[in-house]
Structure formats: structure tokens, C-alpha cells
Amino acid sequence: MNVFFQVFGFTCAVVLALFLGNVAFTKYQLYEAQVVLTKMADSFESLPQPKAPSDNQNLRRIIDQLSKSNRKLSDDLIAAQRELKAYKAVKSAKQKAFAKYHTDSEDCLIFDGDAHMVECQNVKMRAKKEFERLWAAGQRVF
Fold this sequence. Notes:
By secondary structure, the protein is mainly alpha-helical. Among the domains are: 1-46; 102-142, no CATH class. It is built from 3 helices and no strands. Residues 56-90 form a coiled coil. Keywords: Coiled coil. This is DUF2570 domain-containing protein.
């Protein structure tokens, strides 16, 4: 039992020493941080301070910046809407032109089986590829 108390006492002493060492090290780190912060504060105080504009000037400047940004956003939105409208018009015209260029044969309206479906889809894909080539070349009348 005596050995138990010796080991327990030694363990408690080691834990206490580690705890006190940790506390001392933490206090040292806090002291060093305080020294660094004091030096930084002193260096900021030594810098020349810019003249602060009045609150009205700040508000006017902010309002001007927001107005400019708002105008730019509005202009960008209008331009994007025009581009989208033009894109939709071209896409619609292209779809109508392809519908005139290629119509499915009556044989492909109802598929007889998987092989027949694949054959009909291949015909349509080849027609689409040829149409795209003609469209890219500038042909628009079909």
C-alpha cells in the first residue's frame, strides 16, 4: 500500500508540475502578445492621420457610387435581355428551317422494333448533321 501512495504522489507531482509549466508558458505568450500589440498601436499612432471628410460628403460619395453601379447593372441587364431575345429568334428560325428541311418518313412514325427505331434515328441524325453543315455555310432557305 505504501508503494501505491508513493506512485500516486509522484504522479500528482508530475501533473501539477506540467499544469504549472503550462500556466507559466501561457502567461509568457500573453505578455509577448501584449508587447507586440503595444508596439503596433504606437506605430499606428505615429502615422499621419488623413483628413476625414464630413458625413455628408461620405454619404454623397456612397450614393454616387451606388447610382453608377445601378446604372451599369441596368445597362448590362438590358444588353443581356437583347442577346437572349436574339438567340431565341435564331434558335426558333433554325428549328423551323430544320422542320422544313427534314420530315420523318411515314415508315418512321411508328417503330416496328428496336432496330427499326435505331435506323430511323440514324437517318434523322444524318439529316441534322447535313443541315448543320448547310446552316454553317450560310444557307437559310429550305
